[in-house]
Amino acid sequence: MKIIEGFESAKLILSRQTPKESPGSDDRERVVRQIVNDVRDRGDAALFEYTEKFDGVKLASLEVDKERIDRAYQEVDAGLLSALKLAAERITTFHTEQKNILLRENTGANLGWLIRPLNRVGVHVPGFTAPLPSSLLMTAVPARVAGVKEVILVTPPGKQGGVSPVTLAAAKIAGVDRVFSIGGAQAIAALAFGTGSVPAVDKVCGPGNIFVSLAKKIVFGVVGIDGLYGPSEVIIIADNSANPEYCAADLLAQAEHGSLASAILLTTSRRLADEVNKEIGRQLAILQRREITAESLESRGLIAVVDSVNEAIELANLYAPEHLCLIVKDAADYVDKVENAGCLFVGEKSIEVLVDYVAGPSHVLPTDGTARFSSPLNIGDFVKIITLVKTDEQDIAQLGESASVIARAEGLDAHARAIEKRLEDMSRGGS
Length: 431
Known about the structure:
This protein is α/β, with parallel strands linked by helices. It folds into 3 domains: 3-14 and 230-373, 3-Layer(aba) Sandwich (Rossmann fold); 43-225, Rossmann fold (3-Layer(aba) Sandwich); 391-427, no CATH class. It is 47% helix and 14% strand. The protein has 16 helices and 14 strands. It has a 6-stranded parallel beta sheet with strand order 1-11-10-9-12-13, with helices on both faces. The model has no long low-confidence stretch (mean pLDDT 95).
């Protein structure tokens, strides 16, 4: 990995200055818009055609029947099934606690709020080169905890012609209601507009490639979306107390997501920087995905040596990473200084991969610097707030004149008169 020294040099690289549009970006958006419009207009027929074209699978049915889901649950290795159940239990526990703390109605006062779960949510789980049951659990389980009435899963069929048994088993564990063998932009369009087979949803959630993100952008407003997710990324902040083998392992775990993933180490120790770099070379040699991982480290990886942990945190806040790991002495003392991160890991024993699978919080996190203004997928993504108003004559008497003055200043005399009529009736003793 490339090693640089100094705060200013690192800042130039980590500032996330607005990039120029990548070659072909307009073409991609044009293609995605055509797909979205085609699915909106032709429904199921378009879904069958795109699945055959893009996934190489000719489906007999878009929906996976309940019997196939039940069989898959029985087919999956018992050890894997147990691990998926543990993950689901911990995700449930975490988001139940989040719900109890964050989602409290206030209906007793004159001014309050109601909280209502969404009626129907669509979850997109990409296929990539292997099934991703963890992403399904991380999205569908919080929806269930929030009280969403119906959860719809869309995921592309494998080359064998069907959805992976592991994904179907995870869907059963998560309490998914219906499963459809479709993925990509066409699946997002189907969830947004509905087709003969796929019901329209209120919100579309889950990660995907650039075509999925573009489709989510296009349908936003017709439905809600949880966010737009780019390549995965981590910043590790480490001092001379850190274990170089662990740092290297965590950087490699991030880099193996793909060639566009970003694995970054900010350290106060040149010795650690050199040791981590050497250790990466040793560990990389035995990885199955070493070519992709090496490409990621070469193009997006970075080790920066800075003067202090505070400088490293300032750089991390500037970059706003998806994952931020504090592997420094007295790591907890620095938590209050962190402003921008999707998930913060405090201390050497707080391992990112645990959150990827079984710790409890959702691993669907803001990327590309969006942690500056957005949050991880959480219980709030699956509810809506309704403002509750129960004002009385005392409130009208106290507030009405000011409301009328503002309304007339805005040239909205009907607004003003709606208040003034009440005030006039009250002054005459009317109701």
